[in-house]
Amino acid sequence: MKLKTTDAYPSRIYSEPKLIERQDPVMYAKNEEQHILSQEELSFYERNGYLFFDSLFNEEEVRELSNESKRIWTLSGEENTPEVIREPGSNEVRSVFEIHRSNEVMKKLSENNQLLERVSLILGSQAYVHQSRINFKKGFTGKEFYWHSDFETWHVEDGMPRMRALSCSIALEDNYSFNGPLMVIPGSHRQFLSCVGEAPDDHYKSSLRKQEYGVPDQASLTRMVDEGGISAPTGKAGSVLFFDCNLMHGSNGNITPYSRNNVFIVYNSVHNKLQSPYSGKQPRPDYIAARS
Amino acid sequence: MKLKTTDAYPSRIYSEPKLIERQDPVMYAKNEEQHILSQEELSFYERNGYLFFDSLFNEEEVRELSNESKRIWTLSGEENTPEVIREPGSNEVRSVFEIHRSNEVMKKLSENNQLLERVSLILGSQAYVHQSRINFKKGFTGKEFYWHSDFETWHVEDGMPRMRALSCSIALEDNYSFNGPLMVIPGSHRQFLSCVGEAPDDHYKSSLRKQEYGVPDQASLTRMVDEGGISAPTGKAGSVLFFDCNLMHGSNGNITPYSRNNVFIVYNSVHNKLQSPYSGKQPRPDYIAARS
Fold first, then answer.
1. Which of A181, A157, A182, A185 minimizes the C-alpha distance to A276?
2. Beta partners for B165?
3. Could you give the CA distance from residue B200 to residue B213 in angstroms, rounded to a whole number?
4. Apex CA B18: angle with CA A92 and CA B181, to 5°?
5. A200: number of CA atoms within 13 Å, CB side?
6. What SS3 state is found at B86?
7. Which residue, A56, A118, A226, B155, could crosslink A240 as a Cys pair with Cβ 3.0–4.6 Å?
8. Would you give the distance in Å from CA A31 to the centre of its chain?
């Protein structure tokens, strides 16, 4: 056990789960200014930890993203690079990482002003891409993503010091309530759930397929849902969910014929750059958590 | 391959999936009479293959059912009888069969007039309980039920000759869109999907945990959903879904804390009693398909 004295959010070191009050602001935007987000939107995000926009991209932009993601899917099926993560128990592609570097269309997306203006407003600073990926949840066979706070992993395994990051999930197809949409627990971002169990070296090699450490316990999840409920915002292709790095989220599997593919882009404040991981272990590779 | 010449719905005998027109009525109710179901409800059922009622039972009845199901769950955990089916890959109870015989509360439920009057109206005859069970889909870990037509199995493995049966699914808790509710493909009951692959002897011992034969192919499912869409009726505890024996249905897994437990009671017309299975194999035991 290597506990930094400056660790604001210790996790995977106690024998019991613990809830720790968030020690960072959720919303860095100043109230008195005119913004791309309304006051209602800003306070909704602060209170609930997310914001959903049904059509931030037009049809043509969505078509380009969707076609490009299909191309990436096809190419990735044959590639054996570490950026390509496969489903547990099958060879099917589950995620492709670092697409904002390897792909021009996705690079352009990561620099899109519709995203960047909102992100830098919420984070109160310039931001950079901490991680990008496409998640492919295929029809019929798409597997669940169990509940987790991204920050817990980014903090412990990547050395992200504070909560000053957020994710954008961009839907590449129409999302329905029944094809395994992203579910969030509103308000859960205001507490940090310190999880039980120390992760082994190179945990990421298996955890991107199926998480086994840093997994929230059922009692804490139940309490969070009792307080905040569950929200599963669904909308058309091109809809975008912005959500706080510490918001508890997950998704069910998908036996419907409708695949559910999303681009995830994670932005981190330039004032929150990665340090050495709080686990004391080697940091995960750059394609999962940008250090350069 | 033992193909009866009188088999109206051959399945698991061809090398390709086949869609066969339904050769039986969906609705046996006479239009000119006054019924417990309205004309709109009757024609909705005929067209879509299901009917949903949000509150067929009052709070007290629901509480009694819910408490009794919890008692059955606890007792079943320790029992090693064939009526108790466990989750694939764990020892958790997934279903308990033949509850209308083993349990007084469930017996009373199976004889409830709110159910029986609707059932005998739709089937146009007296009906008897072909099968009963509780399905336990626990919070956090509840697994999916893949798409299937019940009739396909009941025909091939149990010898149910024609489509003149239906199921009642009674919700024991409030159902949400996100805790793995039953999904149906409206209109799919009007065609019989002849599935590929011959089931081995004693298939039911594994199929009740995870189906491997009589599984609809993805192309046919996609066509059905393209035509009819997907409906996932959700409502309060005590809500009831009536659905045709040949309606394609399934449900996703459930990572939410909300468990989703349902009582299933299957009624078959007294004019449609079981014969020897169309597979030519031994019939499944009486607790899965009543013969007596």
1. A157
2. B268
3. 9
4. 55
5. 7
6. strand
7. A56
8. 26
Q: How far apart are the first and last CA of chain B?
A: 28
- Give the span between the Cα atoms of B36 and B28, in whole angstroms: 14
Give this prediction's pTM.
0.90
Mutate to test the interface with B, among A145, A218, A230, A234 (most CBs of B within 10 A): A230
Question: What sign for the dihedral angle of Cα A221, A224, A226, A228?
Answer: negative
E strands, B91-231, are: 93-97, 127-137, 145-148, 165-171, 182-184, 191-194
Secondary structure (3-state) at B101: helix
CB contact under 8 A, A218 and B146: no
Name the nearest CA neighbour of A242 among A52, A32, A25, A40. A52
| Shortest Cα–Cα distance, A74 to chain B (Å) | 19
- Is residue A252 within 8 angstroms of chain B, CB to CB? yes
One pLDDT digit (tens) per residue for chain B, 292 residues: 445 557 999 999 888 999 999 999 999 987 666 779 999 999 999 999 999 999 899 889 999 999 999 999 998 888 888 899 887 777 888 899 999 999 999 999 999 999 999 999 999 999 999 999 999 888 998 889 999 999 999 999 999 999 999 999 999 999 899 999 999 999 999 999 999 876 666 666 666 666 567 799 999 999 999 999 999 999 999 999 999 999 999 999 999 999 989 999 999 999 999 999 988 889 999 999 998 7
| A202 Rama class: left (phi>0) / alpha (psi -120 to 50) / beta | left
Contact present, B110 and B129 (Cβ < 8 Å)? yes
Pair A281, A164: CB distance under 8 Å: no
| Residue contact A139–B218, C-beta within 8 A | yes
ipTM here: 0.88
Enumerate the β-bridge partners of residue B50: B243
Phi and psi at A155, nearest 5°, equal -70, -55
**Is there a contact between A255 and B255 if contact means CB atoms under 8 Å apart?**
no
- Looking at residue B138, its amino acid is K
Query: Hey, of B147, B177, B217, which one would you mutate to test binding to chain A, going by the most A CBs within 10 A of its CB?
Result: B177
